[in-house]
User: What shape does this take?
Amino acid sequence: MQSLGFFGSFGGVYVPELLVPALEEVESAFLEASQDADFLKEYHHLLKHYAGRPTPLYEAKNLSKRYGARIFLKREDLLHGGAHKTNNAIGQALLAKRMGKTRIIAETGAGQHGVATAMAGALLGIPTEIYMGAVDMERQQPNVFRMKLLGATVHAVEVGSKTLKDAINEAMRDWVSNLQDTYYLLGTAAGPHPYPTLVRFFQQIIGEEAHQQILEQAGRLPDQVVACVGGGSNAIGIFQGFRNSSVQLVGVEPAGLGLETEHHGAVLAKGTPGCLHGMKSLALQDKDGQVRETYSISAGLDYPLVGPEHAHLQNTGEAVYASATDAEALAAFHTLAETEGILPALESCHALAYAQTLAVQGTPEQIILINLSGRGDKDLHQVMAQQEGAPHVHA
Assistant: This one.
């Protein structure tokens, strides 16, 4: 490989020898495509005319009054498919087509990456199969139906915790068995090199647009850019537009039922170095080094590792990471719905919740830019269950 893709001490390629040639093929194709004007022209054409970029930057004045700071929302929830995942799915599907692959596989947690991959597969005429944990399928039934409507085959993963971690395991097993014709379209900025770098490349459009838009609307850069972090793709995408500046980059993890319990997914706060899914990063592990099951009301944040670049950014201090509980995220869901008429994804609600904490610590002139990474239609079942006092659908 031309690089092992380390971010400080994190990242790398920790895979069976059989997978190395496949990763080398992806790396080589990506490096060529990212410098190919025709490939980039087609990618940006589809983002504009198919996916609906640029997404708006919206000053949420009602929410600003409630929080006590100027709040801007980068509306990735308005992207075709309902989440930022479309940027990455279109980019990688084009890469698969360029490589001559005739089959795409993917994993998904909240279902948004699965929907985006199914859309891209349908658009480019490439058969698509999605692996999804059975627990996540129960939590995200509308997205499962959407994937099937878009022509994808959805495989229920019934092993382990039946969530995203296990879906990734199954997708990798499939890939090992079908390397010749299959492209693995990984959904977040994690996994073995080159995926963390590749996903960041296709998601950096969020930060590039937001940087230009906030200057046009506010006349200056924000004080903070806030995004939720599970694997970390939406956060790394918007952070790219504000690195090497005075802007504070803030990632928000799922604290679930509280960091004092074992029912959370706050990897950057509570994790230790470990290897899984082909990378070295921070992971939630027990005293024997076994990966722990995680917990979050949000399926998209329910992952026991984090993208390696986030672990590096925390180490260097270039970004800071906080957390929000299920209860705080749910409160933020209702607040945004009632003040602005927007139903946010539960993932994004973690960023919204922590932005309120930042606002309380600042001044009314403080500008906080939040990446609204997805829309909340998919989470209505979960929110309704919480309102009715039903137990959270997760072990």
